[in-house]
Every structure is written in C-alpha cells, then in structure tokens.
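Can't paste images in this forum, so I'm doing it all in text. The chain is below; anyone willing to post the predicted structure tokens underneath?
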Amino acid sequence: MELSGATIRERRKEDHMTQQELADLVGISREHLQRIEAEKKQASDKLLEKISFFLDLYRPDAGLEILLDYCRIRFLSTDIKHILEDILGIKLKYMIRENHALYGYSAQYLMGDVVVMCSDDEKMGCLLELKGKGCRQFEIFLNAQRRTWFDFFRQVEVERGVYKRIDIAINDRAGWLDIACLADKCRKEEYSTVFRSYHNYESGELIRAREERRKEMGNTLYLGSMRSEIYFCIYEKDYEQYVKTGQEIEDADVKNRFEIRLKDDRATHAVEDLLDYEDPARTAFGIINRYVTFLTPKAGEEDITKWDIDPMWARFIGEEDRQLKLTDAPEPYTLERTLNWIRRQVAPSFKMLHQLAEIRGEADLLDRMIDEAKLSPQHKKLLKQQQTEVREMLAEKFAGLGIRVDPDTGEIVEM
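Text version of the structure:
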C-alpha cells in the first residue's frame, strides 16, 4: 500500500490529531509513528492500512452526510394542477388520485411516496408530504429538472408556502456516535441542554405508538418532547436495516442517524437559514449546538460550565468551517414493497388455491381468476407510472431539457 510518511503527517494534522492519539489508535508507540512520518522506518502494508482506516474515520467530514428526510408544506392554493405542475414539476395526468387523505383533507394525489393532499376549503389549501422515501423519489424529479432542494424551497417561498415540518438527517457512516454512551450521559446529567426531557429505548423495545418505525429502530435516544416544535432523535440505523432487510449490522453503510425534527416556526427558520447560506452543515450543527452539548466531568469540579466537551461529541460536531453538502440520494419508486407484501400475505393463499385446484381437477383455476379480474383506474395508472420515463412525466415548464434519468438509480445519465 502506498502511503508516504509525509502524507500521514499532513492528513493527521488536517484531522487535528496528535501523534500520540494516532499511535494509540493503531496500537504502536509514538516514537514508532514519529519514525514512520519522518520516513526513517517503512511501515508494513497491514499497518499502513490500519493508519489509513483511522485517518479516514476521524477526518472531520468523513463518514457524515446530511440530507432532508421529511418535508410537509402547506400551500395556500387549492389548484392541485398548479401545485403539481408548476411547483413540483410533475404532470397531473400521471398522478394517482385517492378520495381519502390525512389531516382533514378530502383527497390525495400519489406518485409512489410523493403525496399531495387537497381540499376545496381555501383555508386548508393543498398539503405536500414527503417522508424519507418520498424525499428520495422527489429528488429524481429535481435531478431531471436540473433543480436542487434550494431551488425548490425558493419557489415555495414565492408561493408563500407554510412549512409544517422539516426533518434534517445526519447519517453517521463511520460509527462516530455511541448512542448507549450518550444515553448514559443523559442519565448522569453529563450534558448541557435547553431541553427539559429525554427518553432512551433499547434495541427492539416498543417506542411510541406514533413512531411509525418503532419496531425497526435500534437503540434510540430522544432529546426534547415530541410535542414541541423541535426535538432530536438519534438511533441505530444499522439495526433498522437489519430488521427491514436482514442485512448484517456490520455490513450497513450507515451506522447511526441523528435526526433534527422541526415544526412550524422552527422549520421555517431552518429553511430560511439554508437559503441564506446554502450551507447545510452550518444549519444542522448550528441547531444542535444551540440545544445540547455532551460533557466530560472534571474530578472535584461541580460547576458544569467548567467541564470539557466530550471528545466523541466534539469530533461529531466538528469545526465551525466544516464543509458538508446536502446529499442528493435519489431513489426510484418501485413496486418492491407491494411485491414483498404479496409474497408474505398473498402468495401462501395462492399456493393453497393452486393445490386445491389440482385436487378438484381445475388446474387452470388461478389463471381463470386472473383473466376474469378487472383492473381499477388506480391499477392502470400505477402501471402507467411504472412504464413511463421520468422525462415524459415532467410538466411542460420543465420539459425539453434534453436529459434522461436512469429508472434504476435515479441518476442523470444523458445531458
């Protein structure tokens, strides 16, 4: 492995790490590392791999990414076509209409997990709701339109949209955060916060009825009340993926997730900050810093203001000038969840019917049932969505850009 001593020294200093700290991490003496950096001693490939691993792991921005994970916005207009085509940029004719919705709305239009609810009541207007998958799927359309989240939010401002909830998520890919340790610090009151409460739930515990992913989330720490305009949710993302997909925890790309959940005025202020600076790290870590700091007690010192910031927490928070872009992780809408549900809930019944048909001498029973079945308008629209390229579903004002979006990855493959 090629990694010169000069490069090791340069990267270590960029990471604000002392020789002793790096030496302790890789299991050698400081003098040994000093000789390697001075290129007076050649390190083995195995040792160089270990040094490279820890330099990457503790790089200020390595292993962290910021993304929008929930978006709920109310628009004053009741014109659903205007909301879909002029703001979201999706043609109305490709959306599936359902005559029911949440939050008191009478109907909703769907494109996978992109949901727009509508009402004839001018006081309610239309409501856009994008959960995690909805955000990822909407990014496919933003890519195709050559727009960013910043562009979209600026258009929301023009439309005088009202932010009801915005979630900013920080993915910890390197495993910097030890949630059990943070929860223990909460119990010992080794932290400074303006929040009045915290709740910690072990992996597998039933969290709360209103937490939709409660059965999937691992060790989880809530800071603040879920009823307030701002609270934090920190949980083991690798455990969530293990429960969802069976993926081994050690193979998970994201170890932990820190979610900043903002409502009403807090959501509005966060978006304003994002638009003013276009610096998601400044916005996200600025909010966290204002609300909580984890500390390491000093022996014999009772004044908490004189305690040091916990090293793990300091590394996660990072420097004021850290650079992290808003991650774009488009994910195409597929019928995989529906197919999985059919495999679990419907396929056993199909198998039973198939065997029953053979016993009765009607081997073609299932085929006849399928042939006789009638597809609803929603079924036909769903098939149309799956057969149509994103470019064709763009509203007129965003069409004709000469680009194509890969239906499997959501990335622009032709400009």
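Residues 204-210 have pLDDT under 50 and may be disordered. The radius of gyration is 26 Å.
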